[in-house]
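Project standup — Tuesday

K.O.: blocked on the structure for the chain from last sprint. Re-posting the sequence here as requested.
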Amino acid sequence: MDDLISRLMDLGLSEYEANIYCLLLKREYATASEIAKLTQISRPRVYSLLANLVAKNFCAEHLGGVKKYSVVPPEVALSQLSETFSKKSKEAIQLSRELEKMYKQRKSSNNPLDFIQVLRTVPSIVKKVEEMEASSQKHVCSFCKPPYAMDTSKLDELNVTQLESLQRGVRYRSIYEVEENRRDDFIKMVAHFRKKGEEVRITNYLPLKLILFDEDKVVYTLENKVPTSTLTAMVIEHSDLAKTLKYTFEQFWNHSQTFEEFIEDR
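H.V.: unblocked you, prediction finished:
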């Protein structure tokens, strides 16, 4: 264990952060109070260290009756470090394999309040969406808002997981908000996904970015108003909320234009 902590410190974590991360690898979830008792670190200090780990994409917050924390899978957390510290990429990959073994052996939890997860970095959001797309069985419904960070010359390289789900028979329906300042690229992007089998509608306004999976899981993003803040995504596994938002999706769907109608109005 000391060797793992030392190697994590070499990759940029403090000793306390590395200790907490290794502790969480053995558990599915833990509260700040539990971590404070197990590490003998004061609770206020633990909250600060957990905030650092969340910011570094090593931990995720879970909202419920009591806020809990879990580790971001080592493969995800350390792959990001390997990009930042290219000279240490081989070490990060090897370490992620060793830590992954501990992560897979963690104890499971059946607490009914553990259905909300907060993600604060783009890589962790993308990874979670891909996991949920891969596990979807029936349908995926999306609100898609600009800016669309897509290179239209490389569309075939994007959303591979979605295309695999489409081939499995999962129904995809997406409502796209028009990106006026890149209208030609916008049309090319929507036409591409439509050709791949996605059902599309187009509108001038959507309230937020939202993805619904099989009427029991929801991912939505919130644009932080503070200039220095990053994107925040909420992942909620709750069928009642998902069904309510599905109704909202259907209202927008029924009042949005088809692709053909949008092209005719240009």
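K.O.: great, moving the ticket to review. The mean pLDDT is 85. The chain has two domains: 2-104, 116-264.
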